Amino acid sequence: MKAGLEVHVQLATGKLFCRCPAELTEEVRGTFVRSLRAVSGENRQVDVAARFEFERSHRFRYEMTGSDCLVEADEEPPLGLDEAALDAALRLASWLHARIVDEIQVMRKIVVDGSNTSGFQRTALVAVDGRLAVGGRDVSIPTICLEEDAARRIAQEGETVTYRLDRLGIPLIEISTGPELASGEELRLVAEEIGSLVRATGPVRRGLGSIREDVNVSIPGGSRVEIKGVQELRAVSTFADGEAARQRWLLSLRDALVARGTPPRPGSPVAVDGELADVETGPIRRALTSGGVVLAMALPGFAGRLGRSSDQPFWFGRELADHARGAGVGGIIHSDELPGHGITSVQVERLRRRLALDPPDAFVLVADRDRTRAERALERVRRRAEQAFEGVPGETRDPLPDGTTRFSRPLAGQERMYPETDIPPIALSDARIARAAAPRPKGAAEQRECLQREFGLPAEVARVLVADGEAPAFAELVRRGHEPAVVARLLTQDIAEAADGRERVPAFSLDVLSSLLEALRAGRFSKEGKPAVLRALLDGAPSVDAAIAAAGLTELSEHDLEAMVARIVATNRPLVEARGLDAFSPLMGDVMREARGRYDGERVAAALRAQLERSIRSARPGPPHG
């Protein structure tokens, strides 16, 4: 494997080209709609990725909030670069031993997927030729840039995509490594080291999505593939190793296709509405009922090569479907998955005769209301099928939650760049660079060793704390008197479990976390109640006290606990009389359902045992009267 990283870290300094706050919000104050088109860059060529996005024919609906202004709406020229953001980038460049440029020229990078209202992203080169020491060797850092983040994609209905502008314009520091990393594990270590350094620059945002990595991977005989927007440092190695495996699989597919000696020319689209007119269910019936069209295309030599296999997580039918979806259709149906989707074996044979297929040949179907869109989808399928005979196409892919990736668009190139005309060049004096400099902080490896040595943390816990940027918070909370093991669990597990896959997880202040731990230590709620309190804080509770109340964990006295246990034991008297102390286990479940979160389980168990013993003693007959 040959791999490299582009690490993007959000700064908490205010927007990069206006003075709006860099805060995400759910408050929407207004909307507007735009359509974007691809244009040529500085060398007068239209970028292939921009053309690909333009052909989707999307309309874009933008939601304005209290965190944006006319600059984000592209109705007002940008202001100058945010000074604090530039200082953070200069500080990082000095730590990475990079050569800072004499003059910053903001550039426009054409992006027409709707993530920017203007049709381009502003980016500025800050430094070049840096290096980072990791694992006993230097990793090259060719470029350090400062750029604006994209708008948040909220929803899609038909051909209209909705974006929210609160994230648009948040400053990003982008650090690129050279293509010299050889494994997913190396990528992870480098990503952690870079993340640790960037967080130490000062004004860095925290929380899910505040740091994202683009992972570039190739193998011998393959091509560079960019996995865009990995949000967790720990997932970098998974996606990199998975992409290397996918490229090896594509090369084996190429060898198998070439060995068949089949010419790499798929057929032309053919309308097969008549052959499938008697299909009764599935996507074919829905398309025909709505007045749509069904097109088929022959794929010579691909029979048995499109479907899933038990020994591979990849299948070529999915690759073709991802490319077809880029044209706006819902997907494809291929012959390796038929009969199915409402299509019978008789209809399959009818299609094979219509397309004049031989046994080694396969075919794909596209059903859509719009014939032009269906034809465009099959054209993309045709191009991807032809690329299978070459091996691995260079492309951009999106990461998926299960650790796999999906085709997004072709790789962008230099054709998308041209200078920003609204912002003059910014000269960097030696005095300005010196003011931004600061002593270099501890790297990720040093931080991990410190956590293990000073606090006795297991190696894996220390690694997660550093990778997530929580080492400083951990040290401060322990300094405030909280138990290291409890703090580590809160920062590495409890908050993430309470978030339960939420798209936006706010970063709690140290004061809030300390108050939470103090309330737990004081017995105001038990460790079982911690998830409920955290969820209440995530839902917007203004304080720990308010979160405890919202979670229904108002404090109960010892008398209240004893009264509750006595009531449950009395309600289950027949069980107690029949089983005695053995009734503890079933009754413990009943008590915990009412007491969970308010009391620690050991206190509840002690109260229940004491009440059972009292109940059993009182039920025993006294001595006979003489």
Write up what this structure looks like:
The protein has 626 residues and is of the alpha+beta class. The termini are far apart.
Indicate the topology.
Layout: E1 2-10, E2 30-34, H1 48-54, E3 59-64, H2 83-95, E4 99-100, E5 103-104, E6 106-110, E7 120-134, E8 137-148, E9 152-157, E10 160-164, E11 171-176, H3 184-199, E12 211-218, E13 225-230, H4 236-259, E14 270-271, H5 282-289, E15 293-299, H6 316-325, E16 333-334, H7 345-354, E17 362-368, H8 371-387, E18 395-399, E19 405-410, E20 417-419, E21 426-427, H9 430-436, H10 444-455, H11 459-467, H12 471-479, H13 484-499, H14 510-521, H15 530-538, H16 544-550, H17 558-571, H18 573-579, H19 584-595, H20 601-619
Parallel strand pairs: 3-10, 13-18
Antiparallel strand pairs: 1-11, 1-12, 2-3, 4-7, 5-21, 6-7, 6-20, 7-8, 8-11, 9-10, 12-13, 14-15, 15-17, 16-17, 18-19
Helix pairs in contact: 3-4, 6-8, 10-11, 12-13, 13-15, 15-16, 17-19, 17-20, 19-20
Labels describing this entry:
alpha+beta; Gyrase A, domain 2; 11-stranded mixed sheet
Distance between the termini: 94 Å
Q: Biggest sheet: strands, sense, closure? A: 11 strands, mixed
| % residues in beta strands | 15-25%
> Mean pLDDT score, rounded?
88
Rg on CA atoms, Å: 31 Å
Please tell me what the overall shape is. globular
